[in-house]
Automatic annotation (TrEMBL):
This is GDSL-type esterase/lipase family protein. It comes from the Bacteria. The lineage of its organism: Bacteria, Bacillati, Actinomycetota, Actinomycetes, Micrococcales. Residues 10-179 form the SGNH hydrolase-type esterase domain. It holds the Pfam family Lipase_GDSL_2. Transmembrane segments: none annotated. Signal peptide: none annotated.
Length: 202
């Protein structure tokens, strides 16, 4: 695995691109910066602002197909970065579950290893619904033995996250917030998923 070229496609909404981060790294840039590959990895962040899981499900396969390699020496990896727009759009939890299940099932059929990052806290009024959504996504991933990063539970009452979010108007975190998300990803099976040794300094 480590001798192969690794291509990672991150699909999700604008949070996947680090909107609000003055350093323009987001959590994805910070995670990859702390991941040591034997060969340079290719990371493609394929984000659509305001996207629900229904919309994500309709486009991800086509968009990743042009980035993934067909050669046996290429290791294709899919990161599903789920946002909060299902809540704002009024999608039922059942529909959100089905959308993620379909994405993961297609990825599995394509022999593409998947990794799921759940929605982080946002507006306080949406807290309970985001928590319910995160739990549902976690269950779907668990049933398929796909790693899931719960970003909601650890950050919902985290003072640094809440302060950072408040500075961004309650919607987007800044450098500190994305740093916290990156830490959670790095410490929730990221290296194991890639077949790489854990970076003790992460």
């Amino acid at each position: 695995m480590q001798d192969r070229e690794v291509r990672i496609c991150v699909v999700g909404d604008e949070l996947a691109t680090g909107v609000g981060d003055a350093r323009a790294l987001g959590w994805t840039g910070r995670v990859v910066a702390r991941t040591h590959f034997s060969r340079p990895a290719m990371l493609f962040t394929l984000a659509v602002p305001g996207e629900t899981s229904t919309q994500l499900g309709a486009r991800w396969e086509t968009e990743t197909a042009t980035r993934f390699g067909s050669d046996s020496e290429v290791e294709n990896r899919l990161v599903v970065a789920l946002g909060r727009h299902d809540v704002a759009s009024g999608l039922t939890v059942a529909r959100s579950r089905l959308n993620l299940a379909n994405i993961l099932d297609v990825a599995d059929a394509n022999r593409t290893a998947a990794f799921v990052v759940g929605p982080p806290p946002g507006m306080p009024a949406e807290g309970d619904r985001i928590a319910e959504l995160s739990d549902a996504f976690a269950d779907v991933a668990s049933r398929r033995r796909v790693p899931y990063v719960d970003t909601y539970t650890p950050l919902a009452q985290h003072e640094q996250w809440l302060a950072d979010l408040a500075q961004g108007g309650g919607t987007y975190p800044g450098q500190a917030g994305y740093g916290l998300m990156a830490w959670l990803v790095l410490h929730t099976g990221w290296h194991a998923w890639l077949g790489l040794p854990q970076d003790e300094a992460s």
